[in-house]
């Protein structure tokens, strides 16, 4: 598989990948301690496409990302990619895709399709509940990070921050 875009490095900060905030933007009651923790450093309003066919997981992920100030759209299948990308202004900066979706579609397929539809580079994260050793080996050989369900919000924050951080000066 080919990389979808450059992998920016973490910002040089005493706590890489985090900005300290006592009151994260968009904090909603009921999100728990994970939402009240440090927010990832990113470009405010960065566009994140969440592709997840489990509605509860999708809603929780979207609420967390929006609490960090990110602009989000959700699609359950590849059929929903067009409308979701339109809600993001035509392109995503980051795709977070479940590995196993309906109709034998994988997160890899989704990321490739989004990359084909937009002219701008994108970063990606695969999320999986798969535990089979062979599947895990193949997933970890991909060009993008893999997070395991249930996803730890702190780990998601760290990976999101790294992927959305501005590129280091050359």
Automatic annotation (TrEMBL):
GO biological process terms on file = phosphorelay signal transduction system
- For this UniProt record, give its keywords in alphabetical order, as a comma-separated list: Phosphoprotein
User: Which positions does the record annotate as the modified residue 4-aspartylphosphate?
Assistant: 98
Domain annotation Response regulatory: ranges:
47-164
What Pfam families does UniProt report for this protein, alphabetically?
A: Response_reg
Quote the PROSITE patterns the UniProt record gives: RESPONSE_REGULATORY (PS50110)
SMART domains found in the cross-reference section: REC
Q: Which residues form a coiled coil?
A: none
**Name this polypeptide is given:** Response regulator
* Organism name: Oleomonas cavernae
């Amino acid at each position: 598989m080919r990389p979808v875009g450059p992998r920016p490095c973490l910002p040089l900060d005493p706590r890489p990948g985090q900005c300290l905030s006592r009151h994260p933007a968009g904090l909603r009651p009921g999100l728990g301690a994970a939402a009240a923790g440090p927010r990832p450093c990113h470009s405010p309003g960065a566009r994140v496409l969440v592709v997840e066919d489990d509605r509860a997981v999708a809603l929780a992920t979207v609420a967390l990302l929006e609490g960090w100030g990110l602009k989000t759209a959700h699609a359950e299948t590849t059929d929903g990619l067009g409308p979701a990308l339109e809600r993001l202004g035509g392109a995503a900066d980051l795709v977070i895709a479940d590995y196993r979706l309906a109709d034998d579609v994988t997160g890899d397929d989704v990321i490739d399709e989004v990359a084909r539809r937009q002219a701008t580079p994108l970063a990606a994260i695969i999320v999986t509940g798969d535990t089979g050793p062979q599947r895990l080996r193949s997933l970890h050989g991909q060009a993008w990070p893999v997070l395991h369900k249930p996803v730890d919000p702190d780990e998601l924050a760290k990976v999101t921050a790294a992927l959305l951080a501005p590129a280091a000066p050359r």
